[in-house]
Amino acid sequence: MADTSDTRTPAQIEADIRRRRDVLAETLDEIGVRVHPKTIVGDAKAKVVSHIDHTLGRAYVGVNKAVSDVRSRFVDEDGAPRLERIVPVALVAVGLVGLLALGTRRRKG
């Protein structure tokens, strides 16, 4: 048989009940804050912002790498332009602009 006798004084028992009541009240307050709609919305917003920041960071790194790759094709290590690569690209661009201009003129006329 288990010993169920309590050797605490009534004042000790009352103090223990007050402590447990305070802990329970604090726990209930925390639960109330966690399930409050503003808290739930705030947590959801924080998750979305974190995801967007992560996605934008990855996009920035990707774009930065692409720009660096393109730059390295048209500029040498010293920063001087590589004319042997720039001139053909410029000629193609001018040709495309010219064709687009001719196409719009023919449609209007």
Write up what this structure looks like.
The protein is mainly alpha-helical and 109 residues long. It folds into two domains: 11-74; 81-109. The protein is 83% helix and 0% strand. It is built from three helices and no strands. The chain has helices at 10-35, 37-74, 83-108. The model has no long low-confidence stretch (mean pLDDT 90).
- What is the helix tally? 3
What does the main sheet amount to? none
Number of strands: 0
Low-confidence stretches: none
Which whole number gives the mean pLDDT?
90
Q: What spatial form do the alpha-carbon principal axes imply? A: elongated
| N-to-C series of helices and strands | HHH
Q: Count up the domains.
A: 2
Backbone structural class = mainly alpha
Compact overview of the structure:
By secondary structure, this protein is mostly helical. Helix content is 83%, strand content 0%.
Keywords:
2 domains, 3 helices, elongated
How do the strands and helices of this protein lay out in sequence?
Blueprint: H1 10-35, H2 37-74, H3 83-108
